[in-house]
Structure prediction request, 439 residues.
Amino acid sequence: MKIINFLVYQVLSNETIFLGLIALIGLLLQKKKFPQVIDGTVKTIIGLTVLSSGAGILISSLSPVVTKLNQTLHVRGVLPTNDAVFGVVLRFGTIAKNTVITFLLAFFLHLLLVRLARHQVFKNAYLTAHLMLYHAAFMNVTLPIVLKTNSFWTIVVGTILNAAYYTYSPAITRILARPWMHDVSTLGFMDQVGSIIAHFIGKWFGSAKPEQDADNMKLPKWASMFRDNTIVLFFLMPIIFIGIGLAVGQKGIQTLAGTGAGSTNWIIWLILEGFTFTAGIVVLLQGVRMFINSIVPAFKGISDKFLPGAIPALDAPTIFPYSPMGGMFGFLGSTVGCILVTIATIVFHSPVIVFPSPIIMYFDGNVMGVFGNKAGGWRGAIAAGLVTGIISSAAVILFYPLTGAVYGSGLTWSNIDYAVVWMPIMYLLKLVRGVIVGF
Prediction:
C-alpha cells in the first residue's frame, strides 16, 4: 500500500512528473539519442515547472485581497479557484483517496476509449493531469449529494462521466481550431464545450474579416505598444486590484500591507500586487513556450506506438500564442463580466457572493478570446470573454451548494464547462434520482 500510495499520490497525480514521464517514454520509443532524450525530458519538466510557478504567482497575489473583501462585507463569498478548492478536498481522507482512484480509473478508461475510437477527431489524449485530478475531486464531493451514492458507486459513476468527457470534449476544440492549429494539439482545460459559445458569440458580435482580427489591428503608433501582453497587464491589473481594494477599504488592505513605521501605503501595495500578477503571467507564458516545444514532439512516440494518430489535449496557455491580442481582449471582456456578477450578487443580496476569479478572468478569458477572435475579430473576442465570464461566475451560485464537503469553505471550482456542462448534468441527475425514488 505504501508503494501504491507513493506511485499514485506522489508520481502519477503530479502533473510535472506525469508529463515528464510522458516525454521520456515518447522520446525513448522514438529511439532518440541520449542527449535528445535528456533535452526533451528536462525542458518538458522545467517548462511545466515554470508554467506552474507563474500560475502560483497569479493566485497568491489575488487571493489575499479577495479573502479580505469576503471578511469585510460579511457575506458567504466564494472564490472559484480550482487549485485552492482541491487543497480543501485533500483534508478529507476518504474523499481524497476516492478522488485519486477515480482519477486513475478515468484516465485509463479514457486511453482505452481513444484507442478504440474509429473517427480520427476523437483520437485526443487528455494530458492535463492536474485538472483531471481536480475534476475527480469535484465528482467525489458532488455525486454523494446529488445521487446519495456510497464510495463505490461514486467512483464508478465519476469514472465513466470523466472518461467520456476527457475523450469526446477535446474533439470540439479540435474541429473549431483545425484551420489555425492544424491538428498539432487540441485543448484539454475544462473549456472545450464553452469554446462553442465563444465561437458563435464571436460570429454574432463581430466579423472574421482579416482587418477585424485583433492581431492585425492597425493601432496608432502610441498604442502599438499594447500589442504586448505585458504592457496591457502592467496598466490593467493595478486598476483591478485598486477597485477590489476600494471595496475592502483602507483599513482592511493596510492590514495586508503591514502596519507600523516603514509599512507600505495601501494604494502602493495594491499597485505592487498588480505588478506581481503581471509578472506571474510573464513567467507562465515563458514556461508555456518551453513546455510546448518539448512535449508535442515527445508525445509523437507514444501516439505512434499505442495511440496511432492521436494528438495531445493540453492546458489553456498552449492556446494563447495562436492569438495573443484576441486572448487579451477576451481577458478584458471576462474581467468585466466577472466583476458585473460580483456587483449583482451583492446588490441583489444573493445567498452566494461570487468574487472575481483569476482562473475565469485570465485563463478562461484568454481561451474564449482566442476562439472569439478567430470567429469574429476583436469585437468577437471581447463579447466572447464578457458573455462566458458572466455565465461562469453566475453558475457558481447554483452549483456551489451541491459541493458537499467543501460547501462553506469559500472556495469552489471554476472554468466555463463547470457552468455549461457539469452544473446542468448534476441537476439532471438529481432530478432523475428524485423521480426514481418517488416511484
Observations:
- The chain has a mean pLDDT of 86.
